[in-house]
C-alpha cells in the first residue's frame, strides 16, 4: 500500500491510493465522490494497469525478465506501461497511428519506450496488426492487449475498488464511470456487486459512441471530441460485461466541455473531457437517487476522473467549444 510517511524505493510504489474528493455541484443528500487518478506518477488511471499487468505477466511467466512489451496505444496506457516497463527492466515498443497526440508520444519516448508510427489512414486496426507483426518478429515479446486482457479489469478490482470502499466505509450506492476498454468500470462494478448486488452501475460514453448497443439501445454513430472513452465497434470491447451494468449514459461533447470548465473554475479540478462526462453522468444519477427514481443501497455515488487537462492543452480543451479540437 502506498504510504507517504516514509521514503519509497521506486515510482511504482506511488501508483494508486489516489484521493477521493467530493464533487460539490451535486445534491447535498446524495454526495458524489470522484477518484482523482491524475495523482498517479504518469498522471492517469492507466498507471494502475501498466504496473499490474506487467507484474502479473512476469509472475506467470508470460513475460521473461528483459523481455519486450508491445502495445498498440495512442495514449495513457502507453505512458503507464512505459513507466512500469522501465522500472521492471523490460523493453517497451508502442505502435501509434501518426495523427495521435505528440505530447503523449514524447512522454512515452522520454520514459525509454520506442515509438513505431503507422499511417493515420490505417487507423487503430493498422496499429494492432503492426504490433502483432512486431511481436512475431522478436524473441520474447508480448502484446498485453488492454482491450481483451482480463488483467486490466483485475487491476481495478484489486486496487481502485478496495480503495474506494475503504474510504467510504463500504457505503457506496452507485458506481459511474466512462468506458474505453471498460476495465475501470468492470473492475469496480464486479467488486461493488459482490458486496451489494443492489449497487447501481452506470457506464458513460460520448454521444456518437455505440456502447449503448450492448443493452439493446439504439445509437447513432458519429464523431465526438471527448477523449479516452466510447467505441465505434463493440466487437473490440471484449472486457465489457453488460450483465453488470444498469444503464449506459451518453454525454454530449457540449455538456462535457461546459462541465470540464466548471470543474476547473468552481472546484479546482484540472481534469479532461472523460472526467467531465463522468461527472455529468454521476450528478444525474445522484439527482435520480435523491428523487427516488433510482433505488440504490446507499445515498452516495462514486465516479472516476481518469486524467488531467494538461495533456490536452494543445487541443484547446479550455478554448471555446468550437475551438476545442478532437
Ligand atoms: N479516460 C481517459 C482519458 C482514458 O485514457 C481512458 C482509457 N482509454 C478512459 C477514460 C477509460 O478507461 P477504461 O479503458 O478503463 O475504460
Automatic annotation (TrEMBL):
Residues 12-307 form the Tryptophan synthase beta chain-like PALP domain. Coiled coil: none annotated. Keywords: Amino-acid biosynthesis, Cysteine biosynthesis, Pyridoxal phosphate, Transferase. The keyword Transferase applies. GO terms for biological process: cysteine biosynthetic process. Pfam families: PALP (PF00291). GO terms for molecular function: transferase activity. The keyword Amino-acid biosynthesis applies. Its cofactor is pyridoxal 5'-phosphate. Belongs to the cysteine synthase/cystathionine beta-synthase family. This is PLP-dependent cysteine synthase family protein. It comes from Natribaculum luteum.
Amino acid at each position: 500500500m502506498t504510504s507517504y510517511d516514509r521514503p519509497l524505493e521506486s515510482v511504482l510504489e506511488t501508483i494508486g491510493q489516489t484521493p477521493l474528493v467530493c464533487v460539490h455541484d451535486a445534491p447535498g443528500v446524495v454526495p458524489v465522490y470522484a477518484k482523482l487518478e491524475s495523482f498517479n506518477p504518469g498522471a492517469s488511471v492507466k498507471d494502475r494497469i501498466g504496473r499490474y499487468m506487467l507484474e502479473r505477466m512476469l509472475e506467470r511467466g508470460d513475460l521473461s525478465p528483459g523481455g519486450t512489451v508491445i502495445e498498440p496505444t495512442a495514449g495513457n496506457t502507453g505512458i503507464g506501461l512505459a513507466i512500469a516497463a522501465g522500472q521492471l527492466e523490460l523493453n517497451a515498443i508502442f505502435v501509434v497511428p501518426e495523427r495521435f497526440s505528440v505530447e503523449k508520444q514524447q512522454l512515452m519516448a522520454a520514459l525509454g519506450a520506442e515509438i513505431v508510427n503507422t499511417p493515420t489512414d490505417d487507423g487503430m486496426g493498422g496499429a494492432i496488426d503492426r504490433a502483432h507483426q512486431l511481436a512475431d518478429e522478436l524473441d520474447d515479446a508480448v502484446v498485453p492487449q488492454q482491450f481483451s486482457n482480463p488483467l486490466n479489469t483485475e487491476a481495478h478490482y484489486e486496487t481502485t475498488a478496495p480503495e474506494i470502499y475503504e474510504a467510504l466505509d463500504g457505503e457506496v450506492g452507485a458506481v459511474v464511470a466512462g468506458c474505453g476498454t471498460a476495465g475501470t468500470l468492470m473492475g469496480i462494478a464486479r467488486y461493488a456487486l459482490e458486496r451489494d448486488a443492489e449497487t447501481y452501475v452506470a457506464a458513460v460514453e460520448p454521444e456518437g459512441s455505440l456502447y449503448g448497443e450492448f443493452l439493446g439501445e439504439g445509437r447513432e454513430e458519429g464523431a465526438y471530441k471527448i477523449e479516452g472513452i466510447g467505441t465505434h465497434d463493440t466487437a473490440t470491447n471484449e472486457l465489457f460485461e453488460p450483465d453488470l451494468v444498469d444503464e449506459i449514459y451518453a454525454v454530449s461533447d457540449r455538456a462535457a466541455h461546459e462541465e470540464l470548465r466548471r470543474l476547473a473554475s468552481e472546484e479546482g479540478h484540472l481534469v479532461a473531457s472523460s472526467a467531465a462526462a463522468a461527472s455529468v453522468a454521476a450528478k444525474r444519477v445522484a439527482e435520480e437517487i435523491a428523487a427516488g427514481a433510482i433505488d440504490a443501497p446507499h445515498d452516495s455515488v462514486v465516479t472516476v476522473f481518469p486524467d488531467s487537462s494538461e495533456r490536452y492543452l494543445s487541443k484547446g480543451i479550455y478554448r471555446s467549444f468550437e475551438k476545442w479540437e478532437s
